[in-house]
Design goal:
This protein is mainly β and 658 residues long. The protein contains four helices and 38 strands.
Length: 658
Amino acid sequence: MRRILILAPAFLPSPAAAQDTEEPEEIVVTAGLPATPGEAAYATSEIDREQVVSAPSGRIDEVLQGVAGVQQFRRSDSRSSNPTAQGITLRALGGNATSRALVTLDGVPQADPFFGYIPFAAIAPETIGSVRVTRGGGAGPFGSGALVGTIALASAGPDLINGALASSSVNNRGETEVAAVFAPRIGEGYLLANARWDRGEGFFTAPEDDRVAASVPAAFDSLSGGVRLVQPVGPNLRAELAGRAFRDERTLRFAGADSRIAGQDLSLRVSGGGDWQVEALAYAQWRDFSNIVVSSTSFVPVLDQRETPSTGFGGKVEIRPPVGADAILRLGTDLRVAEGEIAEDRISAASGNIFASRAAGGRTSDLGFFAEFDRRFGPLVLTAGLRADRFGVTGGFQCDFDGGGTLSGEVLPADRSDWGVTWRGGAAYEITPRLSARAAAYRGFRQPTLNELYRPFVIFPLVTLANPQLENEELTGFEVGADWRGEDGAELSLTLFDNRLENVIANSAIGPNLRQRRNLDAIEARGIEASAGYGAGPLRIDTSLAYTDAALALDGSRPPQSPAFSVTAFLRWEASERARVILSLRHVGEQFEDADGADVLPAFTTLGATASYRVAGPLELVLRGENLTDETIVTSNSGGSVDLGVPRTVWLGIRSGL
């Protein structure tokens, strides 16, 4: 197995640092500035490229959930869920369709500007070199979005892709997946270009006994492509120019219940330097979403969310001045702006005519200033960071129209802005060359999304109102842990944590079949995270476990969509020079649909597998299996009406170049 390492300054305390005679099998220089020594104070997990490209589903969302405690709002995968439900969180800190974790790709935030979900269909696993999950509130660049942690994805380069790769697969339902990546070296830099197309009729999310004539499988059709050019632009400086476009269409449960997302992204990053190191990043995102809601009783369209154009843009500048061989100082500023609006029509189930329309939207902004200092004292590393953010909610509006297009109601919330201060700090101590201990404390926040502020929605007969007065969510927490690395790749990590999430944004009942997004009191979450790995000859096993005792401070009830227990395990077997088998096990404990705990989502355990055989040269046959035991996965439960997750699925394909 190839190990993917992150290059860092020489004084980063690491068990591997003392093993002068050991050399990694492969080193990949990560994009941007190197990791700082202070990262050792925080609980982190890394996913290497082999695991990324071996997911049985071939989807990046399954890869991320290979770390116990990482979860989406829904248990559905990115082929069978509503795209707006693809929020990512950590540590069972309450179900929310908006991401409470900051997800970046090569330093660029990935959350949708309007809804806050992650467009997983736009992130091709075959282009990813590594994934790093850091838990806890952030105080560095874009720390305002890292409420519960950061998931940093780094693109692969030609050293991992080796020129080009291509793959094509088909499953037992006739669904197809085609992908290609081209990564030539150009001068002292390289180009990374990719394209991917996934399509299929899908599976029935409705249980067989609940299906009606209008029930259809969850069809999907997604297309994405991107280009990333990396070139030196001066002594010790390099520039990365990246562009991406994607389209993702899905049908959910009933005929005509179609959703579509589309986007275009552009970014430029310059990084490097000598004694003075610098990183400058600028990005822009253009997104759109449309969705048709079909009545679950009459099975005809009742709401047409015809467009949701939104724009996100921002950037950062970070400077690391020389402060001595045993210290690093980070100074910088960053900016995030999101603006957008939604236009939707309400349709009469009886006549099919539009009887009301709505337009709503606004703008959020965050200008941050940060400083962080790391200092080594022999085996001890101390780190401390501070952020100050000027955030604003402006230009909000909600306009309602009757069927003839006449304005029937208007809400224009007052603009508002404020300052916020967050922080983080910690210590890492190298007890022996193989054993280290760490401790950290932090405070972070997340702004409400435009969706939470301005967009009401209806899931008949339940109406949920928007709330333009929502306040920021805030998290305060601390953790302690230890990490051990033995011989032959043996690893063990243990973390104890205590987090408190305040001003929790959730849907709160205010009347019969009527809810509103509101700031609730708090969620208190305490728990344990553990991971272990061991390799012997051709075999290696990696496991992770997360247990969280989470409760709403108001009444002690468990937050919705928050399992107490989750476990993952991966077994890799290099059967021969040509053959490889990877087994993946995932268990997620029982959780509840809503805060009242009436609708239960039972625990489930799934087994996946990927087997490959190299036929000739770089050409491989690949056999993949999802949910091989055909476990029933309940993804939603509304008063006994349930949706189901992916059943047993088997893929057969060819692959060249990995």
